Amino acid sequence: MIYLELFLSFFQIGILSFGGGYASLPLIEQELITVQGWITNQQFIDILTLSEMTPGPIAINAATFSGNQIAGIMGGIIATIGVTLPSVIIVQLLAYFYFKYQNLSIVQGVIQGVRPAVVALIASAGVTIFMTAMFGHSDWPIVLSEINWVSVFFFAAGLFLMRKFKASPIQIILVTGVAGGIVYSLIK
């Protein structure tokens, strides 16, 4: 039964994940934590961290890691199929209709209308990840005394290295991962 529930949950996420992997993150969070209660907020953040560190699209990686966390290897496979199947079907249909009707003003209007909503979905996921990394939770209100200053330092360092020196995401992940392993092993 858990396999069917996983498939249906991730199939639904796949159908509603307009805007790419990062836009799917609030949907995954809502489904896995709030609706199903399968994982905690901290487990979700850990899954996102692992999903970002590994090659491939973040939504597919998150589905694989989540499914594995919830129901083992078969759960990971089923969640991955569930999240990708809608895209395969929808992209085939959209490609056909877009190339056939791309010059119609209504098609261009739909694209212009959806774009800001996709940005909002991505921003929402970013705020959740940021708050959890900095404060240990994503609930309001935030209390400044709960801030994790080590996380603030790594965030600032990563942002600085990316913006100032155009460091690649892989370099940032490797450097902060090694540094975090050292720092947190010394703190604990």
TrEMBL record:
Membrane disposition: Multi-pass membrane protein
Superkingdom of origin: Bacteria
Annotated Gene Ontology cellular component terms: plasma membrane
Predominant localisation class: membrane
Subcellular location: Cell membrane
InterPro entries: CHR_Transporter, Chromate_transpt
GO-annotated molecular function: chromate transmembrane transporter activity
UniProt entry keywords in alphabetical sequence: Cell membrane, Membrane, Transmembrane, Transmembrane helix
Sequence intervals crossing the membrane: 7-28, 70-97, 117-136, 142-162, 169-187
Family to which the UniProt record says this protein belongs: Belongs to the chromate ion transporter (CHR) (TC 2.A.51) family.
Protein name: Chromate transporter
Organism: Alkalibacterium thalassium
